[in-house]
Specification:
alpha+beta; Ribosomal Protein S5, domain 2; Alpha-Beta Plaits; 2 domains; 8 helices; 14 strands; diphosphomevalonate decarboxylase activity
Length: about 325
Amino acid sequence: MAITDHPITAKAHTNIALVKYWGKLDDQLIIPQNDSLSITLDEFYTQTAVQFSPSLAADKVVFDDQTLSATDSLRVRTFLDQVRALAHIDYRASVTTQNFVPTAAGLASSASGFAALAGAASRAAGLHLNRQDLSRLARRGSGSATRSIFGGFVAWQQGHDDATSYAYPIDEQPTWDIAVVALVLTAKQKKISSRVGMKRAVETSPFYPAWITASQTDFKTMKTAIETQDFELLGHTAEQNAMRMHALTLSSDPTFTYFNADSIKAMNMVRDLRLRGISCYFTMDAGPNVKIICHGSDAKRIAQHFQTAFGQDHVLVTRPGAGISISD
Protein backbone atom coordinates (compact mmCIF):
# COMPACT_ATOMS: atom_id res chain seq x y z
CA MET A 1 0.00 0.00 0.00
CA ALA A 2 1.58 3.27 -1.16
CA ILE A 3 0.41 6.78 -1.92
CA THR A 4 -0.09 7.58 -5.58
CA ASP A 5 2.36 9.81 -7.46
CA HIS A 6 -0.46 11.71 -9.18
CA PRO A 7 -3.82 13.24 -8.21
CA ILE A 8 -6.81 10.92 -7.88
CA THR A 9 -10.18 12.32 -8.94
CA ALA A 10 -13.57 11.23 -7.64
CA LYS A 11 -17.05 12.32 -8.65
CA ALA A 12 -20.02 11.92 -6.33
CA HIS A 13 -23.61 13.04 -6.70
CA THR A 14 -25.73 14.63 -4.04
CA ASN A 15 -28.88 13.04 -2.69
CA ILE A 16 -32.18 14.14 -1.25
CA ALA A 17 -33.53 12.28 1.74
CA LEU A 18 -37.01 10.84 1.30
CA VAL A 19 -36.90 9.72 4.94
CA LYS A 20 -34.80 12.26 6.80
CA TYR A 21 -31.79 11.95 9.06
CA TRP A 22 -32.23 14.63 11.70
CA GLY A 23 -30.29 14.17 14.90
CA LYS A 24 -27.25 12.25 16.12
CA LEU A 25 -26.75 9.64 18.81
CA ASP A 26 -23.00 10.23 18.63
CA ASP A 27 -21.72 13.62 17.48
CA GLN A 28 -18.12 12.46 17.10
CA LEU A 29 -18.79 9.37 14.98
CA ILE A 30 -21.94 10.85 13.36
CA ILE A 31 -24.20 7.95 14.32
CA PRO A 32 -27.81 8.95 13.54
CA GLN A 33 -30.88 8.67 15.72
CA ASN A 34 -32.81 6.77 13.04
CA ASP A 35 -32.49 4.97 9.71
CA SER A 36 -32.89 7.16 6.62
CA LEU A 37 -33.48 6.70 2.90
CA SER A 38 -32.61 8.86 -0.10
CA ILE A 39 -32.45 9.17 -3.86
CA THR A 40 -29.18 10.15 -5.53
CA LEU A 41 -29.56 12.91 -8.14
CA ASP A 42 -27.88 13.03 -11.52
CA GLU A 43 -27.82 16.82 -12.01
CA PHE A 44 -25.94 17.84 -8.85
CA TYR A 45 -22.44 16.59 -8.07
CA THR A 46 -18.99 17.37 -6.69
CA GLN A 47 -15.68 16.52 -8.35
CA THR A 48 -12.58 16.37 -6.17
CA ALA A 49 -8.91 15.65 -6.86
CA VAL A 50 -6.49 14.70 -4.07
CA GLN A 51 -2.77 14.06 -3.94
CA PHE A 52 -0.65 13.38 -0.85
CA SER A 53 2.96 14.52 -1.08
CA PRO A 54 6.01 14.52 1.19
CA SER A 55 6.92 17.95 -0.23
CA LEU A 56 3.86 19.68 1.23
CA ALA A 57 4.26 21.42 4.58
CA ALA A 58 0.49 21.77 5.10
CA ASP A 59 -2.77 20.68 3.54
CA LYS A 60 -3.87 22.93 0.69
CA VAL A 61 -7.59 23.08 -0.11
CA VAL A 62 -8.89 24.83 -3.22
CA PHE A 63 -12.67 25.07 -3.45
CA ASP A 64 -14.25 26.39 -6.65
CA ASP A 65 -10.94 28.05 -7.62
CA GLN A 66 -10.53 29.73 -4.22
CA THR A 67 -7.82 28.66 -1.77
CA LEU A 68 -9.44 28.20 1.64
CA SER A 69 -7.99 29.58 4.85
CA ALA A 70 -7.01 27.27 7.69
CA THR A 71 -10.29 28.10 9.42
CA ASP A 72 -12.49 27.50 6.38
CA SER A 73 -10.75 24.24 5.52
CA LEU A 74 -10.89 22.79 9.05
CA ARG A 75 -13.57 20.16 8.28
CA VAL A 76 -11.66 18.98 5.21
CA ARG A 77 -8.35 18.81 7.08
CA THR A 78 -9.97 16.95 9.97
CA PHE A 79 -11.37 14.47 7.49
CA LEU A 80 -7.96 14.05 5.86
CA ASP A 81 -6.62 13.18 9.30
CA GLN A 82 -9.06 10.24 9.34
CA VAL A 83 -7.70 9.07 5.99
CA ARG A 84 -4.10 9.48 7.12
CA ALA A 85 -4.82 7.40 10.22
CA LEU A 86 -6.37 4.62 8.11
CA ALA A 87 -3.45 4.61 5.66
CA HIS A 88 -0.75 5.04 8.35
CA ILE A 89 0.78 8.05 6.60
CA ASP A 90 1.50 11.59 7.72
CA TYR A 91 1.89 13.35 4.36
CA ARG A 92 -0.05 16.54 3.74
CA ALA A 93 -2.47 16.72 0.81
CA SER A 94 -3.47 18.99 -2.04
CA VAL A 95 -7.26 19.01 -2.51
CA THR A 96 -9.01 20.65 -5.46
CA THR A 97 -12.80 20.64 -5.53
CA GLN A 98 -15.39 21.83 -8.01
CA ASN A 99 -18.90 21.90 -6.63
CA PHE A 100 -21.90 21.73 -8.93
CA VAL A 101 -24.43 22.09 -6.12
CA PRO A 102 -25.58 25.36 -4.49
CA THR A 103 -23.51 25.22 -1.31
CA ALA A 104 -25.29 25.05 2.07
CA ALA A 105 -28.70 25.92 0.63
CA GLY A 106 -30.56 22.69 1.35
CA LEU A 107 -29.36 20.64 -1.63
CA ALA A 108 -26.94 18.53 0.41
CA SER A 109 -23.71 19.85 -1.06
CA SER A 110 -21.83 18.37 1.90
CA ALA A 111 -23.12 14.92 0.91
CA SER A 112 -21.56 14.94 -2.53
CA GLY A 113 -18.55 16.88 -1.24
CA PHE A 114 -17.46 14.47 1.47
CA ALA A 115 -18.37 11.41 -0.58
CA ALA A 116 -16.08 12.64 -3.37
CA LEU A 117 -13.38 13.54 -0.84
CA ALA A 118 -13.61 10.09 0.75
CA GLY A 119 -13.20 8.38 -2.61
CA ALA A 120 -10.34 10.54 -3.89
CA ALA A 121 -8.41 10.85 -0.63
CA SER A 122 -8.58 7.18 0.32
CA ARG A 123 -7.39 6.04 -3.12
CA ALA A 124 -4.67 8.71 -3.21
CA ALA A 125 -3.47 7.44 0.19
CA GLY A 126 -3.07 3.97 -1.26
CA LEU A 127 -6.28 2.52 0.18
CA HIS A 128 -8.64 0.46 -1.96
CA LEU A 129 -11.82 0.51 0.10
CA ASN A 130 -14.98 -1.32 -0.87
CA ARG A 131 -18.15 0.75 -1.12
CA GLN A 132 -19.36 -0.18 2.36
CA ASP A 133 -16.11 1.02 3.89
CA LEU A 134 -16.16 4.13 1.70
CA SER A 135 -19.67 4.81 3.00
CA ARG A 136 -18.46 4.49 6.58
CA LEU A 137 -15.56 6.83 5.87
CA ALA A 138 -17.71 9.44 4.10
CA ARG A 139 -20.07 9.43 7.10
CA ARG A 140 -17.28 10.85 9.27
CA GLY A 141 -17.26 14.01 7.15
CA SER A 142 -21.02 14.46 6.74
CA GLY A 143 -23.80 12.10 7.71
CA SER A 144 -25.68 12.32 4.42
CA ALA A 145 -22.43 11.70 2.50
CA THR A 146 -22.65 8.07 3.56
CA ARG A 147 -25.56 7.67 1.10
CA SER A 148 -23.89 9.46 -1.85
CA ILE A 149 -21.48 6.54 -2.35
CA PHE A 150 -24.37 4.71 -4.03
CA GLY A 151 -26.74 5.56 -6.86
CA GLY A 152 -30.52 5.44 -7.12
CA PHE A 153 -32.44 4.64 -3.93
CA VAL A 154 -30.15 4.27 -0.93
CA ALA A 155 -30.71 3.44 2.75
CA TRP A 156 -28.51 4.37 5.70
CA GLN A 157 -28.76 1.95 8.56
CA GLN A 158 -28.45 3.67 11.90
CA GLY A 159 -26.09 1.15 13.45
CA HIS A 160 -24.63 1.59 16.91
CA ASP A 161 -20.95 2.23 16.25
CA ASP A 162 -18.49 3.11 13.49
CA ALA A 163 -18.48 -0.40 12.06
CA THR A 164 -22.25 -0.83 11.80
CA SER A 165 -23.43 2.62 10.62
CA TYR A 166 -23.25 2.78 6.81
CA ALA A 167 -25.38 3.03 3.69
CA TYR A 168 -26.45 0.30 1.29
CA PRO A 169 -28.24 0.37 -2.07
CA ILE A 170 -31.91 -0.54 -2.41
CA ASP A 171 -32.33 0.06 -6.14
CA GLU A 172 -29.29 1.60 -7.85
CA GLN A 173 -30.82 1.77 -11.33
CA PRO A 174 -34.57 2.44 -10.96
CA THR A 175 -36.51 1.26 -13.99
CA TRP A 176 -39.69 3.14 -13.19
CA ASP A 177 -40.53 6.57 -14.50
CA ILE A 178 -39.44 8.87 -11.71
CA ALA A 179 -37.91 12.34 -11.80
CA VAL A 180 -37.16 15.26 -9.48
CA VAL A 181 -37.82 18.92 -10.28
CA ALA A 182 -35.48 20.98 -8.11
CA LEU A 183 -36.43 24.55 -7.28
CA VAL A 184 -33.30 26.52 -6.42
CA LEU A 185 -35.09 29.35 -4.64
CA THR A 186 -31.88 30.75 -3.18
CA ALA A 187 -28.20 29.86 -3.33
CA LYS A 188 -27.39 31.87 -0.20
CA GLN A 189 -25.79 30.09 2.72
CA LYS A 190 -28.31 29.22 5.39
CA LYS A 191 -28.06 31.00 8.74
CA ILE A 192 -28.39 27.84 10.85
CA SER A 193 -26.34 24.85 9.72
CA SER A 194 -27.77 21.35 9.71
CA ARG A 195 -25.45 20.38 12.55
CA VAL A 196 -26.61 23.24 14.76
CA GLY A 197 -30.25 22.82 13.77
CA MET A 198 -30.51 19.11 14.46
CA LYS A 199 -28.67 19.40 17.79
CA ARG A 200 -31.12 22.08 18.89
CA ALA A 201 -34.08 19.92 17.84
CA VAL A 202 -32.78 16.86 19.68
CA GLU A 203 -32.18 18.83 22.86
CA THR A 204 -35.25 21.08 22.95
CA SER A 205 -38.15 19.90 20.78
CA PRO A 206 -40.81 18.15 22.88
CA PHE A 207 -41.84 16.25 19.75
CA TYR A 208 -38.46 14.65 19.07
CA PRO A 209 -39.29 11.18 20.51
CA ALA A 210 -42.42 11.04 18.33
CA TRP A 211 -40.30 11.98 15.30
CA ILE A 212 -38.05 8.96 15.85
CA THR A 213 -41.00 6.60 16.09
CA ALA A 214 -42.71 8.06 13.02
CA SER A 215 -39.48 8.04 10.98
CA GLN A 216 -38.83 4.36 11.61
CA THR A 217 -42.36 3.64 10.37
CA ASP A 218 -41.79 5.90 7.35
CA PHE A 219 -38.55 4.05 6.58
CA LYS A 220 -40.33 0.70 6.38
CA THR A 221 -43.15 2.21 4.32
CA MET A 222 -40.69 3.83 1.91
CA LYS A 223 -38.82 0.57 1.34
CA THR A 224 -42.13 -1.07 0.49
CA ALA A 225 -43.02 1.75 -1.90
CA ILE A 226 -39.71 1.34 -3.73
CA GLU A 227 -39.92 -2.44 -3.88
CA THR A 228 -43.47 -2.29 -5.30
CA GLN A 229 -42.85 0.85 -7.40
CA ASP A 230 -45.80 2.53 -5.70
CA PHE A 231 -45.30 6.18 -6.65
CA GLU A 232 -48.22 7.57 -4.63
CA LEU A 233 -47.06 5.82 -1.46
CA LEU A 234 -43.49 7.01 -2.01
CA GLY A 235 -44.50 10.61 -2.64
CA HIS A 236 -46.98 10.85 0.22
CA THR A 237 -44.52 9.31 2.70
CA ALA A 238 -41.69 11.61 1.60
CA GLU A 239 -43.85 14.72 1.91
CA GLN A 240 -45.18 13.79 5.35
CA ASN A 241 -41.72 12.90 6.62
CA ALA A 242 -40.32 16.23 5.43
CA MET A 243 -43.04 18.20 7.18
CA ARG A 244 -42.48 16.26 10.38
CA MET A 245 -38.80 17.11 10.26
CA HIS A 246 -39.50 20.80 9.74
CA ALA A 247 -42.02 20.71 12.58
CA LEU A 248 -39.03 19.95 14.82
CA THR A 249 -37.38 23.22 13.84
CA LEU A 250 -40.55 25.15 14.58
CA SER A 251 -40.92 23.45 17.97
CA SER A 252 -37.29 23.93 19.06
CA ASP A 253 -36.16 26.50 21.62
CA PRO A 254 -35.34 28.98 20.28
CA THR A 255 -37.58 28.30 17.32
CA PHE A 256 -36.24 28.53 13.77
CA THR A 257 -37.20 27.55 10.25
CA TYR A 258 -35.54 26.82 6.92
CA PHE A 259 -38.64 27.97 5.00
CA ASN A 260 -38.85 31.27 3.19
CA ALA A 261 -41.83 32.85 1.43
CA ASP A 262 -41.01 31.13 -1.86
CA SER A 263 -40.77 27.75 -0.12
CA ILE A 264 -44.34 28.09 1.14
CA LYS A 265 -45.51 29.34 -2.25
CA ALA A 266 -43.92 26.34 -3.98
CA MET A 267 -45.43 23.84 -1.54
CA ASN A 268 -48.89 25.31 -2.10
CA MET A 269 -48.35 25.13 -5.87
CA VAL A 270 -47.55 21.41 -5.58
CA ARG A 271 -50.75 20.82 -3.62
CA ASP A 272 -52.71 22.76 -6.27
CA LEU A 273 -51.22 20.60 -9.03
CA ARG A 274 -52.38 17.47 -7.20
CA LEU A 275 -55.89 18.88 -6.99
CA ARG A 276 -55.73 19.27 -10.78
CA GLY A 277 -54.83 15.59 -11.17
CA ILE A 278 -51.06 15.90 -11.66
CA SER A 279 -49.35 13.47 -9.32
CA CYS A 280 -46.41 15.18 -7.60
CA TYR A 281 -45.09 15.61 -4.08
CA PHE A 282 -42.57 17.91 -2.42
CA THR A 283 -39.74 17.39 0.00
CA MET A 284 -37.28 19.77 1.65
CA ASP A 285 -34.03 19.22 3.48
CA ALA A 286 -32.32 21.76 5.73
CA GLY A 287 -32.75 24.76 3.47
CA PRO A 288 -35.43 26.71 1.60
CA ASN A 289 -35.13 24.91 -1.73
CA VAL A 290 -37.99 22.61 -2.67
CA LYS A 291 -37.65 19.33 -4.53
CA ILE A 292 -40.67 17.96 -6.36
CA ILE A 293 -40.94 14.21 -6.90
CA CYS A 294 -42.92 13.35 -10.02
CA HIS A 295 -43.35 10.95 -12.90
CA GLY A 296 -40.73 11.53 -15.56
CA SER A 297 -43.49 11.93 -18.14
CA ASP A 298 -44.86 14.91 -16.16
CA ALA A 299 -41.50 16.54 -15.37
CA LYS A 300 -41.38 18.93 -18.33
CA ARG A 301 -44.80 20.49 -17.80
CA ILE A 302 -44.28 20.65 -14.03
CA ALA A 303 -40.96 22.42 -14.61
CA GLN A 304 -42.59 24.88 -17.00
CA HIS A 305 -45.30 25.60 -14.42
CA PHE A 306 -42.68 26.53 -11.81
CA GLN A 307 -40.51 28.42 -14.28
CA THR A 308 -43.43 30.79 -14.76
CA ALA A 309 -43.44 31.49 -11.03
CA PHE A 310 -39.72 31.49 -10.20
CA GLY A 311 -37.82 31.91 -13.47
CA GLN A 312 -36.26 29.44 -15.85
CA ASP A 313 -32.82 29.49 -14.23
CA HIS A 314 -34.26 28.45 -10.86
CA VAL A 315 -35.91 25.22 -12.02
CA LEU A 316 -33.92 22.10 -12.86
CA VAL A 317 -35.11 18.65 -13.88
CA THR A 318 -33.05 15.67 -12.80
CA ARG A 319 -33.30 11.89 -12.68
CA PRO A 320 -31.84 9.27 -10.37
CA GLY A 321 -28.05 9.51 -10.43
CA ALA A 322 -25.13 7.13 -10.24
CA GLY A 323 -22.90 6.22 -7.34
CA ILE A 324 -19.35 7.41 -6.83
CA SER A 325 -16.76 7.08 -9.58
CA ILE A 326 -13.00 7.21 -8.97
CA SER A 327 -10.48 7.86 -11.74
CA ASP A 328 -6.82 6.97 -11.40
